[in-house]
Specification:
469 residues; alpha/beta; 5-stranded antiparallel sheet
Length: 469
């Protein structure tokens, strides 16, 4: 077979193969077109996937934008977990349900506040509200959980003191002497005693009154000693469980301008009035037969007002130890605790369920419940003598004391009288609120583990507004 013949053979074979493959391809296209017509709209509109191209990487800076987090996966930030008063407007519609009668409407508002509050998700809390007018429990969440009360502890101190000491009780400091006065030389041959009564209001006017009383006795010279009688209370100058770096008051029976310097200040006033002390300043208890020269006193109402409105810890501790002094002298914290525990028993509560360490709430050892605080508030309300003295001492929302700047422009303005409490990571509010229907409510709100006190205050304010709507 010639070369030309072989070439012709291969050309004819190639043409045959081309015709064969062309027929199969046409048939395949016909089949795909039929099946494509049966596809859904979405599948037919699906964009074609382009093949990936190899791209040579270049170094460049990329700005990362955080994707929006789904609500169910929201991460709570402890430093922004507050519901402010302004946020009340955002949830106002959900806090009001005209289809529900009172108090169901109040319970619904409170449930909404707790459900929407981020503060309760990042900390411990307790709430209890009691309707004093209807004598019934309105609302309670975690009311038996023991938490630190901070300065709402002052409510327990005040109510117990008013119950035990009475509304006419006075905080007294005495000036006494032994020996006699030699008229010719105007010399007191004996000692002068300052008997401390832990009166936090004792001031320069009282010192001047002491010096003037010595002058009236005809004394220009004291040959004896000036004695500090500290027998009123135990020697400890700090409370149990107080932090060393707090602004702690000095628990001295001879407190003057918040310091234990009454004796030095008295000597300075005496020298200014020309009275010479030849002896020394010593510590010594006054004899029973010592002569009374002068006494200075302040009423329990005067102590109570600053103790509650300004949350003054020194005033609270003074009242705590005066309560203890009614039990025994020298006054000890345990004596005051005993009276508070007895009052708890009268309320039907078990004192072993709580921990009382001081009178001001400074101690980290104090542990109470919202139920306990409401029980004390109820007891005060049921005893008109106690209630009538307690009420004026409590800060009034938006007007005075530690509530002067809170709840302004809300339904709670002027309708809430309550004691505030603030320690590191602790915030509380307890007292009385007047509802829109005229009912008087006793409440306690305790927050613990809050990294920003304002978050807890916002939560408390929302509850106050809900109670007064």
């Amino acid at each position: 077979m010639s070369v030309n013949t072989i070439k012709k053979y291969f050309i004819l074979c190639g043409v045959g193969l081309v015709l064969l493959f062309s027929a199969d391809y046409s048939s395949a296209r016909t089949d795909f077109s039929v099946s494509d017509s049966q596809l859904s709209f979405e599948e037919r509109k699906r964009p074609k996937v382009k093949p990936k191209k190899k791209v040579r990487r270049k170094h460049h800076v990329v700005k990362v934008v955080e994707p929006q987090k789904p609500v169910q996966e929201e991460v709570i930030d402890a430093f922004s977990d507050s519901l402010s008063i302004d946020s009340l407007a955002l949830i106002g519609d959900s806090l009001t349900n005209d289809t529900l009668p009172w108090p169901e409407s109040l319970r619904a508002r409170l449930d909404t506040i707790i459900m929407k509050s981020r503060t309760v998700k990042t900390s411990q809390f307790a709430v209890m509200i009691y309707d004093l007018t209807a004598d019934s429990l309105l609302y309670a969440v975690n009311e038996k959980q023991t938490l630190r009360p901070a300065s709402t502890m002052k409510l327990l101190t005040a109510i117990t003191a008013l119950d035990k000491l009475g509304g006419s009780y006075q905080f007294k400091t005495y000036l006494k002497n032994t020996g006699t006065v030699v008229d010719s030389t105007r010399t007191l041959k004996g000692n002068v005693y300052v008997v401390g009564g832990m009166d936090p209001r004792f001031n320069r006017d009282d010192l001047i009154a002491f010096v003037e009383s010595l002058k009236k006795m005809g004394v220009d010279t004291i040959e004896g000693n000036l004695c500090a009688d500290r027998s009123f209370k135990e020697k400890d100058l700090l409370g149990e469980g107080w932090c060393w770096d707090d602004d702690n008051p000095v628990l001295s029976p001879l407190v003057y301008s918040r310091e234990d310097k009454m004796m030095e200040k008295l000597v300075a006033e005496m020298e200014g009035q020309g009275i010479v002390l030849k002896g020394e300043i010593v510590e010594e208890k006054a004899p029973l037969l010592a002569n009374d020269i002068c006494s200075r006193a302040h009423s329990i109402d005067q102590i109570l007002s600053r103790m509650m409105k300004e949350s003054d810890n020194l005033y609270a501790e003074s009242m705590f130890y005066h309560l203890a002094a009614a039990f025994n002298k020298p006054a000890r914290a345990s004596g005051a605790k005993a009276f508070e525990q007895n009052l708890m028993r009268r309320m039907g509560l078990n004192p072993s369920n709580y921990r009382i360490a001081d009178g001001s709430g400074l101690s980290l050892y104090n542990y109470v419940t919202a139920e306990l605080e409401v029980s004390f508030l109820r007891y005060a309300y049921e005893n008109s003598t106690i209630y009538n003295q307690l009420i004026p001492s409590l800060p009034l929302a938006a007007y005075d004391g530690t509530l002067a700047k809170r709840l302004k422009g809300t339904k709670a303005q002027g309708s809430v009288r309550a004691k505030t409490g603030t320690l590191s990571c602790v915030s509380s509010l307890a007292g009385y609120a007047k509802a829109a229907n005229g009912h008087l409510l006793a409440f306690s709100i305790l927050n613990q583990g809050v990294l920003r006190a304002q978050n807890a205050k916002d939560f408390q304010d929302l509850i106050c507004v809900a109670m007064c709507k």
